[in-house]
Amino acid sequence: MDQLSWTNVNPHKHVQRYWAHLTLAVCVVCYVCYIFYDELRGYIRLRQAYLTSPQHRLRASATTVLVTAIPERWLTIEALDKLYDVFPGGLRNIWINRNFDELSEKVKRRNKIALKLEAAETDLIKRAVKAYKKKKGKGMSKAKMDMEKIDENMQAEQMASGTGVSSGNPHQVRHSVREALDDSEFPSQPPEEEQKRRRIPVPVVGHGLAVVGGGIDKFGHTVVGGVKKVGRGASERLNSSGGFEAEDEASQSAVRPDPNVDPGTQARTTDSPADHTRDAPHREYTETNGAGDAEGRSGWMFWRTGKKSRKDDVSRKGREEDELPLSYSSPVIPDANAQATVNDRHARNEPKDVLRKKRREISPKAHGVGQEDSVREGEEPPAAYNKEYEDDDYGEPIWKKYLSESDRETMRLPIFGLTWMPSLPLLGRKVDTIYYCRKELARLNVEIEQGQQEPERYPLMNSAFVQFNHQVAAHMACQSVSHHIPQHMTPRHVEVSPDDVIWENMSIRWWERYIRTALVVTVVVGLVIGWAFPVTFTGLVSQVSYLTTVLPWLGWIKKLPGWLLGIIQGVLPQLMLAILMALLPVILRLLAKQQGVHTGMAVELSVQNYYFAFLFVQVFLVVSLSSGITTVIQKISKDVTSAPGVLAQNLPKAGNYFFSYMLLQAFSVSAGALVQIGGLISWFILAPLLDSTARQKWTRQTSLPRVQWGTFFPVYTNLACIGLIYSVISPLILVFNIITFSLFWVVYRYNTLYVTKFRFDTGGLLYPKALNQLFTGLYVMELCLIGLFFLVRDEKDKVVCLGQGIVMIVVTALTVIYQFILNSAFGPLLRYLPITLEDDAVARDEEFARAQRKKWNIGGEEEDEGRNLNDVLEERERREREVDRADEDIEMKNIEARRQRHMLDPRKLMPGPNRWTDSSRNRRSKDFRHYPRRQEDAHTTSNQHMQRNSMKDLEAQRASRIADALFSGIHDEIEELTADERDKLVQRAFQHEALRAKRPVIWIPRDNLGISDDEIYRTQRFSKHIWISNEHTGLDSKGRVVYRRSPPDFSELDLIEL
């Protein structure tokens, strides 16, 4: 290797050969600088094409600017409107942010409590079912047990495919985009119509009378099953069998059939104790205060009715006749539209007084927020739960037939009553998990929803979102100086995704951000320098046998067993090092978040800087200087100008190490990325061990891995820097660099297309930052060459490469100037759009609109002029018939070709397994009979054959059904919406996440014993503010949770990138 590096030249005989090194170094610098220039040009073209694409310009993030550090004087709708109305197109929306940190903490705690309650309920049901099966299986033959398992699996499949029971659904979730659009129409109504609707004497509980303004039929979209009739009141009762009996003057609810379920599924009866409860129809409940008492009151203010709670006389064996049904809907629904102040899209063409009038119409008071729908002073808030039903002492719960009290899950409360402290074993009060979480969840639901009803109680932040009508106006607003005082109304960010906002950092002042940045940089520098000590410790652990001879007090280690000592020396150091390297990105992201940046992508940009600095120091510098680190430190501390010479002496020695390092990274990282070791471990090891609830299983199945770009780029930027540094000193490393990055290109291209998911991105902003970081490798190479040239001496100890060294100093200075000019020229274009692209973007928008009309067969005026609707429909039907006819011709040709091949097959005379008695859904006709692959298959009995095929078909159908239920029919493309529809969805998108938080559902599995239904009933009796459901879930023969739908609180709106 040394023959192909710098050390191969004899300084005493071949001094002139160093001019070749200088020439190659200058060529490398010039070529790399040109590549940087060309890559930045290509990046800018690509980014501009992406930002001006019609698909991207449809998003609200393309036209919305986040303005921070706003002075109090300008923190009003009118002031911001006057300030930014000068830009072309005018404003569309303005959101002034409020500090909901207190509410946000409650939301986070509620989510944790809900998950804990869900896990505890699931565990209780699974334990009870397991105990029942254990008792039932005694003395049962193996054949009968196998048949029981098959029957239990089929029952679990039917339960998961059918509808279950639910209680406390507040109807906050809009499962589809259409529901959200229908539901978002009411804010645009004038306040006069709003007041009229409030006087409608229909006591509808759930989403409130404000939704009903467009007609009772629209309300049916938000209620599961729809509402066919709304009477004067509703009073249903849950009979002892678990079904519903409607009394006189009760509202009749329609049951929405499940299109994917066999009609006979819900009517199936078995011998299980709770089939009558499991197959009860899912209905909605409408509560009244009695005859005519609902008039003049908001439907959800049930605590004003004067109705006192009382403990009913409940027997130990039965239930009351007048109790509420399990599908009782929650009386509380948040209305968080108070924060959005909306301008009309054509606001620039209207007088200011008209705009102010519109803003007053859509202000919080216009919607009753803080007036009729909030708790007035002197009134008590609603009770979160009924204290008389805290425990299961009213009627014997079903789980007690199979379990004892000690079998229930318990938990320890945090000490000193501090919720932020973790629960510690043997410390803190021990409580029943289900009982405690029920009370906490009910209390938090009431407090959160009451806070969501009154957003004006929370203080204003010094930031706001301003949405423009034109994309170019948003970019102009970001580049303009907004305020006459330094650091006011800055920084301003465009291309901010609503779900990527870090809300707790939105109120940080500019001087506070500077202080935080200084502290974070100091901590990062300390980490970069001090991280070598724990890494060194892991190396010492690998040499523990040698340390025992040097340090006598470690002699006890020699007494350990040989296998244990081998693990300590071989496995433990690698494990410790892996944990250290995994912790570092987490620490850096935490520090970047504390720095005060406003978005998750800004965090990734900061982490990219910090992580690259860490890798360059720890991977490159420490390794290069490790041979004589103490001597190096002493020399540099005495004379800083000696750094180039010190680096020049040590760099060539470390070249061979980086050869092997490059190959190791190339093969190990690329192979691991292709095999997806983390995904395999997660799916086949962690999932069976950790995922016990339906939600945990659903989350793991529907979540794709995501790339953390802040720690992804620096790894490969560092490898490229190492290649640049050694490109002249040891040119062979370029070959290893080519191999390494070729493998990476193949691997990550595949993963990017098919494996990983990208919900948020910077639009490519990490790439120019990585290019600038590559200048680090260029500078280190030039400094090392300067040192190496000045270290070349003849027999008289005279510098013989003085000219080469001076030339390299000049090249280094020119490189610095070049980088400065490059960043000055390309800097504004790296993030913002020029005005010259607006006309081209508008033309592409029009072309895209025509393509969309053609795609959906909606002809434009210029295309369909002179054609009536019948002509358009006939043309569409004709095209559809042609497509169907072509598909049939292709299918018939394929069938005929397979039939010809089959007729020539001599095995067609052999008997096949498929007969007309085969119960398989995938049974083929006799013309497509197959010869058995194994000889023993031909001798199996018909019963065994049918049993085996039915199990195979059940698995295949189950996988297909899950995939269809989870992933098909989801409309998450914003291109499918009109401009008005997108604007309606955006109204809530830029509101604080605490205002948009929905009540979580406790999703538990159904079972044949009726324990799940009984738990829902008891939760409903305890509190009307807990949403609990067992819809589309079940337990298979092994006691594992199965599901066939997404959770009831899942919404397509969560997938749409606005």
Automatic annotation (TrEMBL):
InterPro entries named among the record's database cross-references: Csc1-like (IPR045122), CSC1/OSCA1-like_7TM (IPR003864), CSC1/OSCA1-like_cyt (IPR027815), PHM7_ext (IPR022257)
Pfam families the UniProt entry points to: PHM7_cyt, PHM7_ext, RSN1_7TM
Domain 10TM putative phosphate transporter extracellular tail, residue spans: 976-1049
Residue ranges of every copy of the CSC1/OSCA1-like cytosolic domain listed in the record: 63-140, 421-505
Keyword Glycoprotein: no
Composition bias type Polar residues, residue spans: 156-170, 940-949
Biased composition (Basic and acidic residues): 273-286, 310-320, 343-354, 891-908, 928-939
Residue stretches spanning the membrane: 18-37, 514-533, 563-590, 610-633, 661-686, 732-750, 770-792, 799-821
Record domain CSC1/OSCA1-like 7TM region: where: 517-789
Gene Ontology MF annotations: calcium-activated cation channel activity
Keywords, comma-separated and alphabetical: Membrane, Transmembrane, Transmembrane helix
Domain of life: Eukaryota
GO cellular component entries: plasma membrane
Annotated segments matching region Disordered: 156-201, 237-390, 891-957
Residues spanning the signal sequence: none
Name recorded for this polypeptide: DUF221-domain-containing protein
Source organism per UniProt: Trichoglossum hirsutum
